[in-house]
Amino acid sequence: MANEIKSVTVHELKKMMDDKKDYQLIDCREPDEYEFCNIGGKLIPMGQIIKNIEKISRDKTVIMQCRSGIRSAQVISALQLQYGFTNLFNLTGGILAWSEEIDPSIPQY
Q1: What positions carry a catalytic annotation?
Q2: Domain range summary for the chain, segments of one domain joined by +
C-alpha cells in the first residue's frame, strides 16, 4: 500500500514528552471533545485541517491524535495523498489509549 500510515504508541509519545523531543501534537477532535479532556495537543478539528494546513509542520515529527485513532488516521491519509506530507504519525488508540495506559485521570467518553 503506497499510502501507509505510520504510528506511535502512547508509550512512545510519553517518552517523547519526557525526553523533551521536538515534535508537534495535533488533536483533530471537535472543540467540545477537546474541552472535556486533552493531552496538550494543538486543536485543529478534522473538518478544519485543510483550512489550517499551514499550521502543520513539515520539518519535524507530527503526531495526529483523536479519540481512538480512526479520525486521525483518516486525516493523515488525506494529507499524505493530497499534500505530500511524509512526517505524520497516528497516535495508536488515541486519547482512550492514553487514558488506559498512561494517565487514568484523563476521562474516557
Answers
A1: 66
A2: 6-101
- CA 31 – CA 69 distance, rounded (Å): 17
Model pTM?
A: 0.95
88-91 sheet: strands from edge to edge: 6-8, 88-91, 61-65, 23-27, 42-43
Q: Which CATH superfamily is domain 6-101 in?
A: Rhodanese-like domain (3.40.250.10)
The tens-digit pLDDT sequence of the chain (109 residues) is 457 999 999 999 999 999 999 999 999 999 999 999 999 999 999 999 999 999 999 999 999 999 999 999 999 999 999 999 999 999 999 999 999 999 999 999 9
